[in-house]
Sequence to fold (641 residues):
Amino acid sequence: MNEAPIRRRQLITTSGVGSMITAPDGTSLLIAGLDHWYERPYRELKEDEFVVREWRLERLLGVSHFRLPPDFRKGGGDNLYISIPALRFPRWHRCILCNKLVKRKLTDSSRDRDHKCPKNNYGPCRLYQVPMVAVCPKGHMEDFPFVEWVHRTLHPTCQGPLKMYATGTGFSLGSIEISCEGCGKKRTLYGLVGSDVTRRSISILGSKQDIQDTSDMDVEPGKGYTCRGHKPWLGDGAPTSGCGLSMSLSMSTSTNVYFPNTIASLFIPKDTDTDHLRRLLESPSYIRTIETLLRANLRPSAQLLRGHHRPDPLEPYTDEDIDAVLEQIIQEMNTGQPDTKPEPSGEASLLQSEYQVLSSAESRRNPSAKAQELITEKMDLDAYDAKVAEYLESVVLVKKLRVTRVFVGFSRYESLEIEFDPSMLWRNPPDPENRWLPADVSYGEGIFLALNSGRLQQWESAETISQRVERIKANLRRSRGMSVLKRHAHPRHVLLHTLAHLLMRRLAFESGYSLTSLHERIYSEGDMAGILIYTSEGDVKGTLGGLVRMGLPQKLEGIFLRALEEATWCSSDPVCMESVGGDVLGLPSFNLAACHACALLPETSCQEMNHLLDRALVVGTPEDQDIGFFKDLVKTAIGIT
Fold:
């Protein structure tokens, strides 16, 4: 039995459903679908411990709830011995002595079972997995089609045993040869990998130069091997879909074999006074009782729900508060929850509601603040230095926040925006009322800044600004799979995104948090013009306030000015500032004046993988300072010591 330790948070990112991991013994495994994630060998599962509620994401994704990935426990409590199932993949294996290719089952746990090697006196010999798979951008994957490849046909009649040799002519794929012992045909893996900027599909025949006679072939030269919609992470015999896209070769350990898609949301309570009570009543133990009472034509009430648990979690609340929340829940249950898939603009609606709450936030210092998961304090701009305050519309200290990050799907070979498709995550998708997705919850603190809308509109209307951002747009138009970046490639977003990076780099020196602990949320669509810099590395009790303290008067101004001062000069200048959106290899870049020395962050801290950055829009250039939004404040910044 193969075992591989995985961190809980990795199960919604790099090691989610359909991802490939390597066990300590070297076996390549495929994380299985969600059907069997919470199966226990002993006793009944207590699912309340894993359930997470986030009403905005539930509505957006059409699910009933979310669940924390299980953690493996050997003793001392409930929910013991829960492990994430994984399957053996790739299935093709090569004998280390005779070079024979052997195909194993997904559920095999031994490398050498059933294989008798003639070079070992027909005794068992160790098998090694072939390190290559065929992948589709939409997330489908299958074993590399060695049989079709060596016979140059999509429907080979010969099923003779195959062997894989290293010809010794080099270290590229062209030095690996596949041969069929049944008909004697041979073919190397030459031509399977394209250049860094061109995707190379698997051509079963090869090019016209690669073959001389195509009269007996059933496909045209150069035609790609098309995807049949295989989903091996759901087990043998899983339903397939007629995908039809071209497939590409990828090494099983390559980073491009898996791109997880997640969506994050800042918790915004439906009712800031009763959000904790509502989550309690929506937990599985109470919601089942509510549904049972409704089926029995009984009206759920505080009196009927009290005393079901010891100690009673409803004890701190009055009957009036409980009945009021019950009325809301029952009304929503009667109207039904829409079962809709997330649209590309779905995340924008999340950001819009967050921006409205943060930009119009009022100080919350009531006695029940500890029970809230969003605690804000709106600052008086008059308390800040006038030179900095005139660029701002609001400053809000977010003393406590909760961020929920949900895994919704994945792509392969190139990062694409994939819609939530239950059939990609479950072999037997549950009904919408029981559907869930894995999620991670983190608590932290942050600073929210909104820029002066009048100044911003005047600045972004200048033709020189749009002309500069057009360079980034031109590079995006020549690229594949960048739909999210294309929507955000406008002056306001680039300005806000770059400003967030500059401030985060400075805050890492001042706040006590490392740069990898800081994260960003950019609010730039429509009339929005704000950034939220937050840390989510704390536990359920929050953080120590080191980041919030940096937003206070006499502290925020210094951080702002020093961040602008540092942005005026980069150690890679003038090359960095004069960038036209490309590198020395001629590859298109989605940044202008931005590099690791001045504006880039660890990719875990940036929501857009360090794209759409240009510090010239923040501080200007030596030749044209007017393009910088903070051009007047930069003069003050340069003068500070």
Notes: Confidence is low (pLDDT under 50) at residues 211-222, 338-345, 364-371.
